[in-house]
Specification:
Elements (H helix, E strand, L loop, with lengths): L1 H18 L4 H12 L3 E8 L4 E8 L3 H9 L19 E3 L6 H5 L2 H7 L6 E9 L3 E9 L7 H24 L9 H6 L4 E5 L5 E4 L1 H9 L4 E3 L2 E3 L3 H14 L12 E5 L5 E8 L16 E7 L7 H9 L3 H13 L2 H8 L3 H15 L4 H12 L5
Antiparallel strand pairs: 1-2, 1-5, 3-4, 4-5, 6-7, 6-12, 8-9, 10-11, 11-12
Helix pairs in contact: 1-2, 1-6, 10-14, 11-12, 11-13, 11-14, 12-13
């Protein structure tokens, strides 16, 4: 029961952080304790340029934080294998390569081991062709993260992802308005305050435009719904669940894809309003949820992801391929990846078999063919 109460309190704090970013540090502290780690971070990585930006961090020595950003990000097996990572699914370095191999990498020997860390458990919050945002929990146990830690991470990560997406829409820190209502009316995304029954309490200016000029949402009998029957049932379900508290909507899902008759795609993110400071967003506390609706952005796959899928490459094999092509030799690739030359040779042999290559020059041609919009 205590864990259930801690989880419920954490979910409430996560959604409060969507409106008040100063709360994220406390959220990370609670998350680390619940998952069983000693440190936690929300950060983004520019995969192409091997650069990292930390949005918020808890429990890590600032020296090692700087070392990661300045040097060791390029050795991190997780960030360099982002194309294989599913949004929301817990992942550790031991899932991408054998754990004994991971223990011998420069990343572990020079960055993790001095901190007393055994592994990190990550959850991808968002990703594009060249970047990804993630939640990371560092653990000091001498083993890969256990199933219970993964289960908890899987429960928490979707809420953090959605809260951050809603936070991006609201972006209160860049708005100089006197009240939350003024802020909401200034949003480009459609925002709808609804009761548990689905009755529409309030819509911002963009929301009224969306109801009037598009067919993505409509009001029927005073209730907010859509012509898509499946999406309509989902919306009704999560509105009702939101009325029962933060954790009640956990298993229902609070990110809903919507498709207009002309094929235009939208996505709706739900922010519960049933606890904490979020109650001030409702009118006389009647609203139990705020629904933010905006057009879905197109995210294209990067060439390395296409190469991996075409030739059934593992994450480590893809890392070796990219390192060989970019750096030109086994020794250079081993140094860049922080692994032994024998490890690179082993994976290179498998690359030759899968791709049908005989020389390193053949690997370069394969990567070049995927990088070009016109294939020979």
């Amino acid at each position: 029961m205590r864990d259930a109460e801690r989880f419920s309190a954490l979910i409430g704090d996560i959604y409060d952080a969507a409106l008040d970013p100063s709360r994220w540090a406390a959220v990370l502290a609670q998350t680390a304790r619940l998952v069983g780690g000693q440190a936690a971070a929300l950060h983004s990585t520019d995969v192409a340029n091997k650069a990292a930006t930390v949005a918020c961090i808890y429990g890590m020595d600032p020296r090692y934080q700087k070392l990661y950003i300045d040097k060791y990000i390029k050795f991190d097996p997780v960030t360099t294998a982002c194309n294989f990572l599913e949004i929301g699914a817990p992942i550790a370095a031991g899932d991408l390569l054998r754990y004994d191999e991971f223990l011998e990498t420069r990343f572990h020997r020079e960055w993790m081991r001095p901190q007393g860390l055994a592994d990190c458990l990550h959850a991808i919050l968002d990703k594009s062709a060249t970047s990804l945002a993630m939640l990371s929990i560092s653990r000091d146990e001498r083993c890969s993260p256990d199933s219970e830690a993964r289960r908890r991470m899987r429960l928490i990560a979707p809420h953090i992802r959605r809260a951050m997406l809603v936070g991006k829409v609201i972006d209160l820190t860049k708005t100089e308005t006197a009240t939350l209502a003024d802020t909401l009316d200034g949003l480009s995304a459609g925002m709808f305050l609804v009761e548990a029954s689905g009755r529409l309490v309030h819509a911002n200016a963009a929301g009224h435009v969306m109801l009037k000029e598009t067919d993505i949402l409509r009001v029927s009998g005073g209730r907010l719904t859509t012509d898509d029957r499946r999406a309509a049932r989902t919306l009704a379900d999560i509105f009702a669940s939101a009325g029962n508290g933060d954790t009640a909507i956990g298993g229902k899902g609070i990110a809903v894809p919507l498709v207009a008759r002309d094929g235009e795609r939208y996505v709706a993110h739900l922010l519960p309003l049933t606890s904490g400071d979020r109650q001030r967003a409702g009118e006389s506390n009647a609203a139990v949820a705020a629904l933010f609706v905006h057009k879905a952005a197109l995210v294209t796959s990067c060439p390395s992801e296409a190469i991996a899928k075409a030739h059934c490459l593992t994450p480590t094999e893809l890392r070796v391929l990219v390192a060989i092509v970019e750096l030109g030799g086994i020794s250079e690739a081993a140094e860049a990846m922080g692994v032994a030359r024998t490890t690179v040779k082993t994976h290179l042999g498998r690359l030759y078999q899968k791709i049908g290559a005989r020389h390193q020059a053949d690997l370069v041609k394969v990567v070049a063919s995927f990088s070009s919009p016109f294939r020979g």
